[in-house]
Design goal:
mainly alpha; 0% strand; 92% helix
């Protein structure tokens, strides 16, 4: 019975609210901590990938590349957390921009092939947003802690309401 697990959803919601507020009130500290944790994850993931490569040789080339890349990226982030707090979000925004532009173009093509005006509007908006992000990646990266904060806070609130509804 899923209603017996309502407290897990409540706990998740409460933790999300706390994390969201932390991102909103301490954006630089939370961004550095988040990127540092990401660096630790990349480092550990790279090591685990190399260990797995030794045990399972299928696709060993990709595993070697992925493992070494994870270790190098993790060490760079851990050894230079302030630098990484600027570079990693900026790269993330650029990837989002490129993805948005391509996804928007695909939606526009789909709209012209009969997918409807909704796909066309979403495609146009996605291309425009992608171009804006591409043109201003540093500004967009600087806004990431607040964006994360707002979405995490809203997700937490939704989970709290869902938990009480489950109860």
């Amino acid at each position: 019975d899923s209603s017996s697990n309502w407290w897990i959803v409540l706990l998740y919601g409460a933790l999300s609210i706390i994390l969201g507020l932390f991102f909103l009130f301490y954006p630089l500290t939370s961004l550095v901590a988040f990127v540092f944790a990401l660096g630790v994850y990349w480092l550990v993931s790279g090591i685990v990938t190399l260990i797995h490569m030794v045990q399972d040789r299928t696709a060993w080339g990709w595993q070697l590349f992925s493992g070494v890349l994870g270790i190098v990226a993790g060490l760079m982030v851990i050894s230079r957390p302030l630098w990484a707090a600027l570079v990693v979000p900026t790269i993330y925004v650029i990837i989002i921009a490129i993805t948005g532009i391509f996804m928007g173009i695909l939606l526009l093509i789909a709209a012209f092939k009969g997918a409807g005006w909704g796909a066309g509007i979403m495609g146009a908006l996605t291309v425009i947003l992608g171009i804006i992000l591409w043109a201003n990646p540093l500004i967009a990266a600087a806004a990431l802690p607040w964006v994360f904060g707002v979405f995490t806070l809203l997700g937490g609130i939704i989970n709290v309401f869902a938990a009480f509804k489950m109860k």
